[in-house]
Amino acid sequence: MPPYTIRDATPADHPAVLALNLESEALMSPLDAPRLADLDRQAVYHRVVCDGDAVVAFLLAFREGADYDSPNYRWFSERYPAFIYVDRIAVAAGHRGRKLGGLLYDDLFGFAREQGFDRVVCEFYIVPFNEASSRFHAGYGFGEVGTQWVAGDTKQVSLQVAPVPA
After folding, report:
1. Which mean pLDDT values do the consecutive 10-residue runs of the chain (166 residues) have?
2. Are strands 45-51 and 84-91 parallel, antiparallel or unpaired?
3. What is d(CA 45, CA 85) in angstroms, rounded to the nearest whole number?
4. Which domains does the chain have, with CATH numbers?
5. I want to staple 90 with a disulfide (CB 3.0 to 4.6 A). Which of 20, 48, 63, 156 is the partner?
């Protein structure tokens, strides 16, 4: 496995982030350049994994209080006073199976601990069922706290919470 590096995303990374998002759009919401720029400005955490100079994975997350119209983010905002919300994570198809999602989650949980957060929240599709995401999140201690229909009632998400270990 090559020596991957993880770092904060920069505007120069946005084309690669958009390409990664597009590649995984079946499992996350669409994203265009103006929307990404807006989300990047509001993000509490936006990091990329690089293979040399190439961005091969990213994770974008928000804390409570963001001006974000995602129905899933709003669901958590209505129920929890403080959290880090994983909005999206994507790994390039050619780099899947190399534990890059875990690299990003380990980093995110370390960031959450350093910043004094008690929980990380996220969601994944259960209709259609994203089995890989379900297994991955279970490994990080996430548990379901609710469900909701999204995308014009065509997809259902499992809303998940994980404690941040001390």
Report:
1. 88 98 86 96 98 97 96 97 97 94 97 98 93 94 97 94 95
2. unpaired
3. 9
4. 5-163 (3.40.630.30)
5. 20
Angle 135-46-111 from CA coordinates, rounded to 5°: 70
Phi, psi (5° rounding) for residue 103?
-60, -45
97 Cβ partners below 8 Å, 6+ apart?
none
Residue type, position 136, single letter: F
Pull the structure tokens for residue 164: 């941040």
Q: Compute the distance between CA of residue 9 and CA of residue 98 in angstroms, rounded to an integer.
A: 20
What SS3 class is residue 72?
A: helix
Q: Which of 96, 92, 13, 109 is nearest to 56 (CA)?
A: 92
The answer to whether the beta carbons of residues 99 and 136 sit under 8 Å apart is: no
- Is the overall model pTM greater than 0.90, yes or no? yes
Nearest to 59 by CA among 72, 46, 68, 71: 46
